[in-house]
Every structure is written in C-alpha cells, then in structure tokens.
Amino acid sequence: MxxxxxxxWKRILVEATAIVASILLxxxxxxxxxxxxxxIVEVQYLHALREDLLSSLELLDDAEASxxxxxxxxxxxxxxxxxxxxxxxxxxxxxxxxxxxxxYQPQISALHDLESSGQTQIIQNQDLRRVLASVxxxxxxxxxxxxxxxxxxxxxxxxxxxxxxxxxNLMLDRAANSETNLAVLGTSDFQSRVAFKISLQGEVxxxxxxxxxxxxxxxxxxxxxxxxxxxx
Length: 232
Known about the structure:
Layout: H1 9-78, H2 88-99, H3 109-116, H4 126-164, H5 167-172, H6 174-177, H7 188-231
C-alpha cells in the first residue's frame, strides 16, 4: 500500500535541475553578451587608435622634416663670419634656424579617452596594453623635452637675438641691407648659441624618434588585432 504523503523526489529533482540549468544558461548568455559587448567596444577603440596613430605619424613626418631643415640652417650659420654679407638666404637661416621653435603635438585622443575612462583592461592583448603604456610615456617625455627646449630658447637665445638683430628691418628693406655686414656672426657668443640650439634640436629629434618607434610598434599590434577580428 502506497503512502499518500510520499514525497515525489523524482519530480522535484527534475524541476530543480531544470531551474538550475535555466539559471546557469542565463548566466552563460549574460557573460557571452558582456564579452561580445566588450569586444565591440575594444574594436571601436582599436580603430580609433589606429586612425590617431596614422595621423600622428604624418604630423611627425612634418615635424622631423622641419627639425632637419632647422639643423641645416643652423649648421650653415656656424660657417658664417663677421664678413658675411646680408642675403635672403642668410635671413632664412636666422629666421627659421634661430628664431623659429617648432613643437610636435601628437593627436592621440582615443588613448586619452581609454585611459580617462579606466577601460585600458578592455584591450585584451597584453603586449598592446604594454606598448600603449610606452606610447604614453614617450609622449610625456617628448613634452618635457620640448618644454625645456622652449624655455632655453626664451631665456638664453631670444634675448641675444633681439639685442643683435632687427629682423623687421631686414625683411622690409632687403635691398638696403644687401650689403650689410653682420659682424655679430663671427662672435663666440653668437656661435655658441647656434651650437647650443643644435644640441637642443638633437635632444628633441631623439625624443621624437622614440615616439615614432612606440607609435609604429603600437600600430603594428593594432593592425594584427584588427586583422584577427576581421578573419574570425
């Protein structure tokens, strides 16, 4: 005779199993959806970083070309002396070589957004995260070098140039100055400042080169990640 109060363990077990399975399935779907969402965001960042790096490398090409041109002008000034007459070429060497201070400002807004939002961990590739950290460090180093360069220009070079050159007159009346002898060109004060600026340019160029290396490495890793994504 069956006990009417007998507990239906089999049915309870089946129902409990179904409930647990549905909960686990819900967790699995939620985790899958979260991973998918994070991957979408990561790919968006990768595309944005790629565009920023390409644009910044183009700007760096221009900055490095300007640096090389300035150094050529400065080296030409080192060859002048007190008997060197005024000419348009000399004016160019002085204007662009001594007075001009170019700075390079990379545009990596995507990296700034990634860092400020605290989402750097969304980049799954650990090597890429490491290189992006290096990119930030190299940009910070370049900013310091360029700031020191500008301060040196303002404190040690500009006052001397203002005291000895009236470039507005030279530019407004080239013909009248075509026979002018610029005696200051042969002085040790002038030559030492030209040599000093060449050394400053060298420090900037070295820092820019390090930025280029970091940018290029990051770009290669990003393109590899995007290629993997497109192939999957």
